[in-house]
Prior knowledge:
Elements (H helix, E strand, L loop, with lengths): L10 E6 L5 E7 L4 E4 L35 E2 L6 E5 L33 H11 L10 E5 L7 H14 L4 E6 L6 H9 L3 E6 L15 H12 L5 E6 L6 H11 L9 E6 L16 H8 L4 H17 L17 E5 L4 E3 L11 E4 L7 E2 L9 H4 L4 H4 L8 H27 L2 E7 L2 E4 L1 H13 L2
Helix pairs in contact: 1-2, 3-4, 6-10, 6-11
Amino acid sequence: MDNATETANPVVIDLVDSRGDIKSVHYDVQSNIMKWSSGGLLSLDRVGRKYQKTQQPWEHQRQFTITPSSPGHKHGPFQLVKIQLGLKCNFQCGYCAQQDGRDHSSSSMVPVRKNANRENVAGFVAGLRSWLNPAQEIRFELWGGEPFVYWSDFKPLAESLLDIYPQARVGTVTNGSLINKQIADWILTHDRVDVTISHDGPGRHRTDDVLNNHYVHELFHRLLESRRSLRFNCVLTSDNLSIVDIRHYLARRLSTSYINIVLLTEGLATPANQNVVAPSLADLSIVFEELIAGKSLFAFGEEIQDFFSMLQTSKPAVCIGHKCGLDRPDAVVVNLNTQNIVTCQNTLPVGRHLLGHVSDLPGPVLNTVWHWRSRDNCIKCPVLAFCRGGCLYLENDEFSKACLFQFYYRLPFLCAAVFFITGLIPIRLVSWMGDIDLSSMTQSCRENLEKGN
Ligand code: SF4
Ligand code: SF4
């Protein structure tokens, strides 16, 4: 039987009102339907929604159950092209997902490369048209390690991409420390380039704060003047879970208004090493509180609204796309130097993650990943709509540990969504993960509700 059509017991969420009366909601994860235990559908009036049928049959969005024995394919036409420059980085963040691929013999201060790897860049660019149509709208992402370590490759490559693909945008995520006058000026003169700085605000996972780099300061303000953004992306850790505090920190250090900070997050750090500690439900109360107070909706509002849409249309879970989308046939990761196709920007073109060569397109087989539909726990998971299956290529203990982190991290999102819909505070959740007392996460909000705040 198709795994995803197996029935699982509905998730039960107990909610409490200001008088202490308890009501239960039954959440059918497979069909995204929430009902009161008495049987009636939850009203979506409080979140401005009405139940509706979709025009398009869901069948078109049904996800493929990709696994190593039932592989996917990379055939395009590509909408997302991630180009892996290399994994060298001048920082060593404790939670970095790329640690396994890194050359640990290199010093922590990797210099900016002065000489371009001209043949590799030229060879890569020369072959592009054979597998990427210049008329297409494509999002290119240039990935390190730290991408500006590879500035001598980055610049000619990005310029060629912008030139050949007039509708394309080129994005990169950098730690910002190597941004100098030359790099800042280049970013300013290329308005189809989007730069995001990884920064965890007051989080202490690096020795240096890149906001001490005055070129970053200046770049931020000059982009702002020209109505562009220098965006920030944070990773949350158990000791740094307030995205509101992170945004305030960035605004203060950049001498600007809070409202000018465009801050995204890739969520909770995955347990890449022993230093990454799982947050407790009490730690996660800050995430729940900021959500229901509306303070963190600048970053999380879209995910909450997406969940409302799923409920509104009873979107079958089998139509929920995987978290990062690298299972898709129209998304590809290519190594610049070898032109090999790899699983993810964090995996090198060696061993099992080497999927093929661009000259094999269309065709390389994606046999290194596990779509959430193939993972038994994901199929019945109450936070599937928010987590969307975690990392595609992790296996065994690594996946189990990452999944546990994600499960708890995503509970505040599910609980906040239920609060928005019902006005009641979740206090207990029963699912495949057992019977979880949510009160340490939601207690202070419950007290506020009882006081009428
Ligand atoms: S929390 Fe775990 S089981 Fe749930 S969707 Fe994420 S990876 Fe799958
Ligand atoms: S496979 Fe997807 S989720 Fe996993 S590290 Fe790569 S981009 Fe992230």
